[in-house]
Amino acid sequence: MFRQICLQVRHNNTIRRRLPFRIYSKPTIIGMKPTSMAQCSRQLTTRTTRIPQLVQSSDTVTDVLEQVNTEINNSIGHELLEIYASEGRWHDAQEVYDKVFRYSNDNESDIRTNMITYGLLMEAYIRGGQEDDAMEIYYSLKDHIELHPTTAQQKGLELDARFYTRLITALTTNSRIDEQKEETISRDFGYTVDDGAQEIMNVEKDSSGGLRLAMILFQDMRQQGMNVDSACYLALLQRCGLEQDRYLLQQVHQYLRMDDTIELDDSMVYALMSAYRQLGDEDAMVFEIWESMGNKKNMQEDMITLILNMCREKKYKLHAVRVWNQLSSMQKSKSSYPLMVSCLCEAGEWNHAKEIVLSQQHQDHHTYNELVELLIHYGKEQGLSSDHWLDLM
Question: pTM (2 decimals)?
Fold first, then answer.
C-alpha cells in the first residue's frame, strides 16, 4: 500500500515508521519543548512591521513572533506559512503551525486552522524536498475528514480543488529529476486512466517521486468528482514533458480528452505539443495536435515556432511546407520567416527558401536584408556560387 510507503521516512540511514500526523495533537517540534498558544501569546509584543521584512531580518520563528502584534490572526499566520513554504523552510513552517495554529481550536482565540493552513504546511515540506512527509499529512488529514465528517465540516475542513491545485503545482514545479533513471519499465507500457496509486508507484524508475505523487493527488481529485482547472493540467503536462515520461503524459492526455470542463485553448494545446515533442519520438502526435487546431486565426506564435523548429531539426520539409501554407499572412511573423528559411535550407531546399525570401522583397527593408543574409549563409555552406543570390541584392 502506498500509505505504508509514505509513512516510512529515512532517518540516520535507517528506515523508521513515523507516528501519524495528528491534526490537533500536542506539538512535537524537534529540539523544542511544547509551547501552548497562550504561552506564545504572552511573548508577543505590540510592535508591528511588514511580515516579509521581519522574516528576512529575523534568525528564528520565535524572533518573528516576538515582534508581531499581540492580536495575531489567521492572515498573519498564513502569511508567515506562505513565506516559509515558498522557500521550502519546512522546519520554520512546522514551528509556525505548532505555535500559532495547533492549539487554536482548543481556546478562545479567533485563529482557526483550515485547508489553507494545511495546504501551506504541506507545500513547505514539498518545496523542502520532504514529499513523503507532506503525503503523510495529506493521508492523516484525509482520514480525519472521512472518520469524523461532522467535526471536520464544523471546522471547515474539506478537500477542495484549490487545496489539490496548490499541492500538485508544488510537486510539479519543485521536484528534482533523477538523472539516473533505470529503464526497468517499458516506455510503451499499456496505460489506462483507471490505474491507481499502486500502478503509478510501479513506474518509479521512469519518473521522479514528485511527479508520481502529483499524479496520485490528481487521481484522488478526479475520483472525488472535483473539476480540475487548467493550472493543474498545465503543470502536469509541463512536468511530464520535462521528465520525458510517456506513461504519465498519456494518462494526463487521456483525462484531458474526457474532461468536458476544460477548453483546449492555445496554452493547453501548446503544452500538449511541447510535452510530446520532448519525448523525441512522438512527432506524429505533435502534428496530429497541430492539425486539430484547424485554421485558427489567433494562433499563438509559440506554437508556430515549436512546429517549425521540429520540422527544421528533423528535416521534415514536406510537413514544413504544409504548415507554412496553412498559415495566413498575419500569422507569418518576423520570427517565423527565418525559421522557415532555415528549415528549407537545412532540408536541401535552398531554391524554395529563396522564393520565400523574394516574397518579402517589398516588405520591411531590415527584415528582408536579414533574410537575404541568412539565405546567402546557407548558400555558401552548400557550396553555391554567388550567381544564385545576385538577384536578391
Answer: 0.76
